[in-house]
Amino acid sequence: MTTDLKVLKSFQFRNIFADLQKKTKWTWNMTIFQTLKRYIQEAILEIIYARKIKNRGPKITCDVSKVLDAIFDMTDNGGKCSYIERHYGVKIGSYYRFLNIIIDHQLFERFLETCLAQESLPSLAVVDGTHIRSVDGSEGVSFGFKERGKRAIKLTLLTSTKKVVYGSILHPDNKNDHTAFGDFAINNPRNKPLDVLADAGYNGKDFKAICAKNGYNIISCPKKNMQERPSNYQTLLLKMNRSGIEHVNAQVKRFRAIQVKYNKAVKFFNCYLQLVLLLVSIHNGYIRNGFGSGTPLQSST
């Protein structure tokens, strides 16, 4: 059971990131992370202190700020864990201790959920997958035809047309795009229907019926021999908006730990990925006005 964090309750993204548009665009990832770091650190310390009983429990013997710097550096540059102690003075055991706290309590996911909850929901979304080659580990990977027989993992993203990430799926490379998103739709049903633009890999009557039942109306590019065709308006939507998700995939793969999967355990790769999705969504949402000026759905209290 995750801890109910006071940091997340009082976190106001729009106020915190209001002035970052003036920063240099080439360093947006580091600038956003440095702004977030103090709040992530507060959340980690809150979790640790909440687990103590009468001040008993493990002591904090290293600088949490340095650990977070190491996590960002590993995500951005894709370095080896063996260099962490040399560069940051943090023992590898302490690094993984705090990394596991972040994973167990889904801190990066919860920060992104808080961010999205404070803004208006999109009226149109885009879905697509991208392949990530796996160098090490056999967990969650498979042989994919696009990677020429190499082991790979596939990342499927659900974004708004303004390139804010609203959902992500990691699955083996041999799993069909529509099967993966069908599972996502079943596990994440919506109260309000959402139109989702997709490529030709997301066709099929049964697949679209499952998605529609869970609140996702799939508008996909038709295959050559298909009789059912999208309307002229839907074709225009696909032409104008579907390519935006490729830009998000490119932004995500700017981080070298995501370009190629070097981690044996998928949970560590997913942790780095969730940090990247948080940074990309904040950049596209607040720095590039992807959220717009809509009325927030709810405010944290």
What does this structure look like?
- Helix 3 packs across helix 4 and helix 8 packs parallel to helix 9.
- By secondary structure, the protein is α/β, with parallel strands linked by helices.
- It starts with 5 loop residues before the first helix and ends in a 14-residue tail after the last helix.
- Strands 1, 2, 3, 4, 5, 6 and 7 form a 7-stranded mixed sheet that branches.
- The protein contains 13 helices and 7 strands.
- It folds into 2 domains: 88 residues, no CATH class; 138 residues, Nucleotidyltransferase, domain 5 (2-Layer Sandwich).
- The longest helix has 24 residues.
- The chain is 47% helix and 14% strand.
Q: What name is given to the CATH topology of the largest domain?
A: Nucleotidyltransferase, domain 5
In total, the number of strands is 7
If you average the pLDDT, what whole number results? 86
**Unreliable residue runs:** 293-301
Number of helices: 13
Work out the helicity level: 40-55%
- Please outline the major beta sheet: 7 strands, mixed
CATH class of the largest domain: Alpha Beta
The arrangement of helices and strands along the chain is: HHHHHHHEEEEHEHEHHHEH
Give the count of structural domains. Answer: 2
Looking at the overall shape, the CATH architecture of the largest domain is: 2-Layer Sandwich
Gross morphology is: globular
How far apart are the first and last residues' alpha carbons, in Å?
21 Å
> Over the alpha carbons, how many angstroms does the gyration radius reach?
20 Å
Structural class: alpha/beta
What fraction of residues sit in β-strands?
A: 5-15%
